Amino acid sequence: MKVEVEERREDRFHSRCASLSRGLMPLVAASILSFMPVSCEELDNDIGKHSQGDGDSLAAVSLSRVASLLAELPIEEEQLAEVYDAVTASSENGYDEEYMMSDLFRLPGAGVGDDRLPAGTKSPVSYQRPMRDLIIGYLESASATKAGGGISSGYGSVLSPEEFVSALENSDIQIYWPFSENWDGQTAPVITFDPMDGSETNVGYEVVLAENGDRLIREVAVNEKMAEERPVWVVNMNDDSGHTSLELLRRQDPDWGSGGGEIIVGMNSPASLPALPSRSGDSAGATGSPLRTLVLKEFTMLRNYDSWFAGASEFFVKMGSVENFTASTEAEIKLYNPSVTDFMIVVKRKNVGVPQPFNAVLVSEWTDQLASCAFMIVEDDGGTRTSWKCTALVRIESKSYGFELEIPINSRDDIVWRGQLSSRYILANDNVTGHFGDVDLKFQIVEYPGV
C-alpha cells in the first residue's frame, strides 16, 4: 500500500514554531523592601518598563512537518484510541485536550499530569502498536529510501531518524484534539497545525482511500467549525504542562473522591487546610477568635484569548497580601513578610461564559487589619520573566502601612485585570459575582470557629 501526497504546498504554510518556557513558581515569598505610613498608595502599572525583552527558542522540527508526518502514518483504531485516552486524561487532570510528544514516547496514552497523580490513581494501559512505533518505523523507512538518509525538519535542515525522534521527545510539541468528547470511536481525524499568526483557518491533511485501495492525502481548509463537526488534530505547542493545575491540587486531597470540585485547595497540601464547617460538621460559637479565609469560589471566562489553533486559555490568578497581620505597633511590622499566591486555571474554549469552580485559598488568615491586597489576573502568553511592583496595605489604629511586593509576570502575558482589592470591597461582595475585565469572579470569606 503506497501513500501519495496531493498538491503538497508545505512551504506556504511554514510556521514560526516557538518553544515557550514558562517556569512560574507556584508560591513566591516576597521580601519586604520597605514599610511606610501612607494615606493612599499609587500602583505601578507600567509593565513595559520592567520587561527585559522576549526570549523564545525554536524547536528543532516545525509544526507543519510534524503534521504532515502524522498524516502519512498508517493510523488505525488502536492509535486513535491511544490519542483519545491521552487527551481525555489531560482534560481530567485540569489541562487542555492534549497529548505531548514527550509523553507519547515516554508512556503511550499518558496525559499531562498523570506522572503527578497519587500512586494507584490510574492503572497503566498497554497498546500493541503505539503511535511511537509508527513514527519510528516511518522515519526509518523514509531515511532508507532517501539519498543521504536524512529527513527534512521543515526548517531546511536534515535530521537522522534518531535526531528527529529526539527533537520530538524533548520539545513542547503536542497533539491538541478539540471537542474530543464528541468522537465516535472510529472516524479518523483531519490533521493540521497552529500557524502561530492568529489565523482562524489553515491547511489540513485528510486521508482518503482511492478505488484501488491506496491511501491519498488531500489538503483541505480547516477551521474551528470543522473541528466541532468532525475529529481534527492540531499540532501545536504546549504551554501549561509545567504548572500544577487546580484539579491536580484537588486530587492530592484524601477526600477527593467524595469532595470533587468542592475541595478548597491552598498553595500547600490541601489536606493541611482547615476543613470547611459545612464538611466537617463544626458549628459556630466556639471559643476564641474565628479564622477567616479568603477563597476564590468561581471563575468565568467571558472571551477566548487565543486563536482556536492554540487551544484553551491559561489564566494565572495572583494575590499579594500579608497573612495573619495582628501587629499593634510600628516596630512589630518588621516581624511580617508579604507573600504571593499564584494559581493556574485552564478554561477550554467551549466554556466561555460558563462558571468554573475555582475553590482556592488566596489569603488563608485574613484579619481586620489587612486593608487591601494586590490582585492580578493574566492570560499566559510567555516571553521573559519580569514583575509587577505593587503594594499590600495594612492598618495599625488609624495609620496605613504599605508592604511592597513584586508579583511575577511574563512580558507577553495578557493582563486581564490588576489593582488593589480592598477589605471593604471583599466584605461587601462576599459570595457575589463581580466583573474584572474579561472574567467574572466570585469571592467568599469562609469563617472557621475559633479555638
Q: Quote the average pLDDT.
A: 82
The geometry reads as: elongated
Given helix and strand content, the structural type is alpha+beta
Task: Report the uncertain regions.
Answer: 1-55, 269-287
Number of strands: 23
| Straight-line N-to-C gap | 75 Å
| Radius of gyration from the alpha-carbon trace, in angstroms | 25 Å
Helix content: 10-25%
* Content of β-strand: 25-35%
Work out the count of structural domains. Answer: 2
Largest sheet: 8 strands, antiparallel
Number of helices: 10
Summarize the structure.
The protein has ten helices and 23 strands.
Can you offer a commentary on this structure?
The chain is α+β, with helices and mostly antiparallel strands. It folds into 2 domains: 3-16 and 56-237, no CATH class; 21-55 and 243-448, no CATH class. Helices cover 18% and strands 32% of the residues. The protein has 10 helices and 23 strands. A hairpin with a 5-residue loop joins β11 and β12 (215-222). α4 (131-144) packs antiparallel against α5 (161-169). The longest helix has 16 residues, at 77-92. Mean pLDDT is 82; it is low at 1-55 and 269-287.
